[in-house]
Amino acid sequence: xxxxxxxxxxxxxxxxxxxxxxxxxxxxxxxxxxxxxxxxxxxxxxxxxxxxxxxxxxxxxxxxxxxxxxxxxxxxxxxxxxxxxxxxxxxxxxxxxxxxxxxxxxxxxxxxxxxxxxxxxxxxxxxxxxxxxxxxxxxxxxxxxxxxxxxxxxxxxxxxxxxxxxxxxxxxxxxxxxxxxxxxxxxxxxxxxxxxxxxxxxxxx
Length: 205
Known about the structure:
By secondary structure, the protein is an all-alpha fold. It is built from six helices and no strands. The longest helix has about 35 residues, at about 170-205.
């Protein structure tokens, strides 16, 4: 094991963990929302509160980057990871709000499955972030994120095809096509975050 002349700053790892845990919680809230589809305004408010909490964590991370003389990873990579994680949370909030704005009556089974995939991806990211300090057993979590993204690609394409095949009301087609696209965007953003972690690990080896 290489000897470090300057120890890693543990506060960065606390913030990474907090960011990941917040993401996992907000993704779980969205999955629960589409599964139960009740108390919608209350559920959206909970997601909005978690989005604000994520912003506070990201702001703390930026301040830490500005103040720290030594960082555990390249500053640019830490900043990129923070941005990628924030992107996922922002899209999740947008999805929750859109479900209400579009006056969705009942989420489709594809919507529920995509939301579960997003929650699973977020759990894997949170687990990877908790292990960043030790740098052990991270790759399995990141590989799972890639697998889930691949599954979501196929599912979202099939879901959109079904919208047109079943000759639904054109307004319903537009609503669900938008929602599927946003769910896929969130899952893609989760994969982007996984790739940011992979780059950090690669550079540190």
